[in-house]
Amino acid sequence: MVPVTTSTATPTSTTANRATSSATPANTAVQGQHSSDRPQNTTGFRELQIGRMQLDSPVVLAPMAGVTNVAFRSLCREQERERMGSVAGLYVCEMVTARALVERNPKTLHMTTFAPDENPRSLQLYTTDPEYTYKAAKMIVDENLADHIDMNFGCPVPKVTRRGGGSALPYKRKLFGNIVAAAVKATEGTDIPVTVKMRVGIDDEHHTHLDAGRIAVEEGAAAVALHGRTAAQRYSGRADWNEIARLKQHLAHTGIPVLGNGDIFKATDARAMMEQTGCDGVVVGRGCLGRPWLFAELSAELRGLPIPSQPTLGEVARIILRHAELLAAHDGEQKACRDLRKHMTWYLRGFPAGGDLRRSLSRVSSLDELKTALSEVWDSPALAEDADGARGRQGSPAKVALPDGWLDDPEDETVPDGADIENSGG
Hints:
two-stranded antiparallel ribbon
């Protein structure tokens, strides 16, 4: 029989006590194409300090729409605790729109749910307007909604960039600076750090990351994260880790941490990125899809500890069920089962799971149906093949959709019309 465990994820208002040691620059960057096949050293990397928030592991879960809700974050944290004995990294909530938060959109407020033991609580804002940025950040402070605010300037999705948001916005240098400054002003006098996540630029002709990194630091950002692709690349090809190294070198004199993002699919990828770029930490997105245990492996690798063994198919079946239970506690059973379907291909990648099982799992509509389907492999000792390969969306490069005249004046600080309304509600 398949055992059942339940857990209810509810908002928490507990604020963490934080250490106050100062941050220092990471290793000197090394140029070159990235490769995780080079000989590895056996020493661990330092802890990650973001403002007054200290993390035992320099690993951050990237916010992903429709994925990094409280259920998935709780599952990742449970897996890290089970395999490593503690939770060391930072797990960021999926992106929410600043204006929708201020207007108390019910969907947005639901998306900001944190588990009772989630600490620190990290929330990412999508924003294009300094006024709403300030109001949203002030609301987070006044109502104790989170312990860390990240801001999204890296989304390459056309519906976002065509309105001037996401990875399009850093091109407007003054507007970008005004937005960062607004969030920092709203958090003055608190321990809540403000950070920025961005891309290399719009396309190869319009790189923005060096200017944006400098501006973010000047306006008070406590860390900067860079995805090593342009918006035009989306998720195609390979991330250019050399640009992460350039940004780290560009900001080295500030002591502000630079985090790298892009093409981290296994533990040794994270070590390779940090060694080759000198970045202070890594942000992991697609690599953890269907692999919530990856953070335990990343934490072990970067802390110089033994890497936990890969889970068997039977163990993955239990993880899938746990994911479903956490989703059901957050969204209700019916919606949870629908949402879980997209995760099944990721979970089963590389495992000898037949077509009948895959079809059954892709159609589940209740926890009972899920348990019945999983019972077929509940005790399977099979291990996945090629589990460390690229996963998630990749696609092809494409011209970036932008508002008319967007590239005419990078000093224009006019707020793009309707950008936050288009994406209101998360």
